[in-house]
Amino acid sequence: MKTKLILTTALTLMTMSSFAQTNDERIPAKGFAVYEEKGNFRPYEFTRHAVGDNDIQIEILYAGICHSDLHHVFADWGAEEYPMVPGHEIAGRVVAVGKNVTRFKVGDYAGIGCMVGSCRHCDACEQDMEQYCEEGAIMTYHGIDRYNGNEHTQGGYSDTYVVAEDFAIKIPANAEIEKVAPLLCAGITSYSPIMQAGVKRGDKVGVAGFGGLGHMGVQYAVALGAEVTVFDITDEKREDALRMGAVRYVNVNNPEELKGLDRTFDFILSTIPAKYEPVMYMKMLKLDGQFGIVGLPAFRNMPSLSVADLVFQGSRKVFGSQIGGIKETQEMLDYSVEHGIYPEVEIIKAEGAEIDKAYRNVQDGKVKFRYVIDMKTMK
Prior knowledge:
Strand content: 25-35%
Largest sheet: 7 strands, mixed
Shape: globular
Number of strands: 19
Number of helices: 12
Radius of gyration: 23 Å
Distance between the termini: 54 Å
């Protein structure tokens, strides 16, 4: 009896030891990376850290292509490290959970946005604004994960991701999953400043730039009952803007269309990713109107405002906004699904040449409105 007990205990310990060893092993992943600045996308194999007690592992189904992905790939915002797997608009299915996880179970839909970690104890984190973490938010790619061995994070143009459940977004089962990924950046980036500005029914709202961010901003403002005007540099998207509920479309390259707009808007959201004149839009605000800026061009094309511009434009308010915290992102996603607000997407295959082509089209302004990579098609 004693011998049998010892043998059983030994076998149990061996099994537990084997599980622990397996659990500590890094998780193989594959995706598409650029290996140098402005390089082409090629297959790339790497590993993710093991699923910890508070983590979930997501099988990535769809990954959106954000304009900021291009800025990183092309080193528009400073030096980068390669190889780089971009992608911070991620939607997928949970395939593993840590023992302490309570919000997710295997089989649930889950998403990841622009960040995967923060200190959680600074003023910003305690106010659910982890994107402004005083110790630095850990970005989904092009980041250093100080809680997982200082590994370099790699993004969503890949087949799997391991993330703390507190930084994962729960996607409702009835969501149109193929359209969800861009909500995790384009959605929250436009939703948050609209909420900050307190946009309400009857407000006159302008959306400057009608791309991936702008077309989401239009939909949220319209849903809140605002009277929306869209500003862009061509006529190509005029019908799209009106179809989405805008009451006016202004081609800023046509001076006639700009007449009579000064001092008419309660709020203007700028999503413009290129050089432009912010003062032109500030002049369109009513007294006490607000100008929210989310578009971030390359440093070489960065627009600027002088102190004089701020003083002479009176009590108009200018503020910037960076994505949103995890709590607000979940709020945005739930609101979007409930109200049927989704990005307009073009699904492409997970192939290097297809991603390269999509990047060229985004650069040239030829996308309406968001490319989404179907990661299930990766070979």
